[in-house]
Amino acid sequence: MPRSDPPRLCPFASLALRMSFSSTAKQIERGIYSHMKQIAFALTLTLALVTGCAATRQRPEKAAKADKAVAAREEIKPLNSWADYRDMLRAEGKSESEINASVESNLASIRAMDRSAGKDRIGVTAPPFQFDGWLNSPPLTLAELRGRVVLIRWWTDTCPFCASSAPALRALHEQYSARGLTVIGVFHPKAGRDDPLDVARVQRAVESRHFVFPVAIDWEWRTRTLKDWWLTGPKRPATSVTFLLDRSGIIRFVHPGMEYHDDDGDKEHAMCVNDMASIRAAIERLIAQ
Question: What's the pTM value of the predicted model, to 2 decimals?
């Protein structure tokens, strides 16, 4: 059977067909482009809404964390007695039996403390101060204190030992300052020790305990002054140490920490009364030299 050729279109028809195809392709292309723009706009809008919602959630969360941190610092209230310590434990939900056990454990630690701890510091020239601030006084140096006997006691605001020793520091200042003794209380934080320096917190504690003598702030005590004076040697029973310096700045007496005070009638604290007597005797001896 003879092969038949495909029908030929006239030039005008062929041109019209090509124009028709081209127009249809452009319409399809424009439609696709328009649809893609709509999809892109929708995605952008969705992303903006999601980001905005996340930021809105984060702002309150950050603010809440900041408020919580501030509140935590404000909750650190100075203890002024063993009764305050008991009240603090009650506020934490401790039972009376648990509170009594905690108090007894603390008193047992005072009774068991090695009073000779710190003898390795006797005769050592006191290291220089590296404090973070001062209250009740311009900054003092050991050079400026030469010629006076100096009592330096590290203390903190959440410690019942320090609270009970506060009257002793006031009494020693009142009794001996005119005779050549300078008392310096050194605040070092235990609770909130990783918080930034909080001078207002220290001021509250100073006012609460009625300290009028110079108070230094050893906020970075783990790496600065207390470490140089006390924490570089053998194991220590406490950080609330007391040093007595002679008029040349040499360490002559060390009370290794915790509590001392005059007789308050409480037989359970008899060892604290004995320690106070030892401190007084050392002060008398150094002033007389």
Answer: 0.75
